[in-house]
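Table S4 entry, LysR family transcriptional regulator.
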Amino acid sequence: MELRQLEYFVAVTEEAGFTRAAARLHVAQPGVSAQIRQLERELGQPLFDRSGRTVRLTEAGEAVLPYARAALAAVAGARLAVDELTGLLRGHVTIGTIDWIRSLDLPGLLAGFHRDHPDVEITVVQEQAAALTAGLRDGRIDLAFLSLGAAAPDGIAIRAVIEQDLYAAVRSDHPLARRSTVALRTLAEHDLICLPQGTGVRSVLDEACADAGLRPRVAFEAGEPPVLAQLAAHGLGVAVLPESAAVGGPGGLHALPIVRPRLTGRIALAWRAEGPRGPAARALLARARDLLPHPAS
């Protein structure tokens, strides 16, 4: 019995067919069939019922499956242990990010990591902060860049990398355009254009309004600051944005800091509090913490 046979057996089971399993394994379909037949001969029992349109496990196949998966997992674990000991990393890392971070050189960070560890596959996903947090908790995401309010989510460790004051952005003919700053109480009297609830910037605004006993009038929500700026440029209200998005927004917008109180949002590198699960993810976290800026620096 060979590990290759067990690998083919598990692939056929999960793909419910020899052709799809062969495509997944990047081998010819007759080779998969031949290895499965050899395994069946060694075990003395058919492992698959081939009579239908899709192949199904026989009773013997059901009994063998957990042992085959355990054997493959043990081999993968042994390889990881040796690779970690010798400094050679393999595996897969998923890193999540909100898709509007302009001041972080994430491509540069990943390029340097890939040069040092070319056998690690990296996936980058872009989602809102709430979805990224859920992905960190359930293990689908190893590391993430989140927009946060004052507190870190439960079960998540963070390191802040960017802090920005929140600004209001209005069209040049808006009443607030004559001001150089705007107090939170005054801001709450106008129609607001905000990021959705659960995002870091929105959490900062909502928490500050709750503390002041204010109920802001949110007229429009959108998932990206540039879209908020465009809506404000069309005169639809006051966009609440990070400083970089407000000051660098469309022409004709007037940006003014929110004061009394001053509101500050954060972008943070985040990971599971107990640490990333694999050695590759741990290595990427260590590199990110070393190379990324700190707001105090």
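The chain has eleven helices and twelve strands.
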